[in-house]
């Protein structure tokens, strides 16, 4: 018996007016795996993860979490069920400290004489622990997030997901705007998450990064899933072939040739 899938999406359709952004897409994520999600611009990657995250409601299709049917009504709802999505815009508050960001929306309070106060010390302590776990180096836990580098911000966003004990972490192009050293760091974060037994969805345009960290690769093209590949059984050339449609045309031609007239 295979393990229950962490996430399964079946026949997901999402339309925006006349545009069919997702055309009956299936997607799955196993416990403890890193699934890369690749495809050309406009292929439907962000739409798929926004649907997974509860930011979009699908027009059709079924979604399951740990084998049970779910429908998330908002990203917050998904977070509460352990599915944390780090959108490309990160949704961090620039003019707040690192610790305040990590605890945004779930502040720790302590009561003194029946009155609730924010327990800033506890939040700072836990934030430091989380950043240490991820090996994120920041100048000072009191630093405003707007003063951090792109890679450090990505680290804070991931620490926030860890803090709510998410076991599915979805990242939409976390390395797109980063310098080489920071990309390394984010790839290391992803490996750390997998070591901790988390499931990760990574959207990336960088095929080399995808090969470095992923277990499997889902390829979307024009709103359809056209490939689900085991990373160690494929090659960057083959993946690029799927992304551009060359592999699809080739396999269709192969099928056509096999079919008797
Ligand atoms: N809110 C929206 N309203 C209308 N159309 C949308 C909306 N969001 C996405 N689309 C359309 O759906 C299609 C898929 O877009 P999506 O953002 O999911 O692509 P993507 O694979 O993430 O691309 P990229 O690599 O450029 O980020 C595109 O044609 C896009 O224009
Ligand atoms: Mg996108």
From TrEMBL:
InterPro entries according to UniProt: AAA+_ATPase, ABC_carbohydrate_import_ATPase, ABC_transporter-like_ATP-bd, P-loop_NTPase
Top-level taxon: Bacteria
Protein biosynthesis recorded as keyword: no
Molecular-function GO terms, alphabetical: ATP binding; ATP hydrolysis activity
EC number(s) given by UniProt: 3.6.3.17
UniProt domain ABC transporter: residue ranges: 7-247
CDD domains: ABC_Carb_Monos_I
Protein location: Cell membrane
GO cellular-component term (any): plasma membrane
Membrane topology summary: Peripheral membrane protein
Presence of the UniProt keyword 4Fe-4S in the record: no
Keywords: ATP-binding, Cell membrane, Hydrolase, Membrane, Nucleotide-binding, Repeat, Sugar transport, Translocase, Transport
Position of the signal peptide: none
Matching PANTHER family: CARBOHYDRATE TRANSPORT ATP-BINDING PROTEIN MG119-RELATED, SUGAR ABC TRANSPORTER ATP-BINDING PROTEIN
Record's protein name: Galactose/methyl galactoside import ATP-binding protein MglA
Originating gene: mglA_2
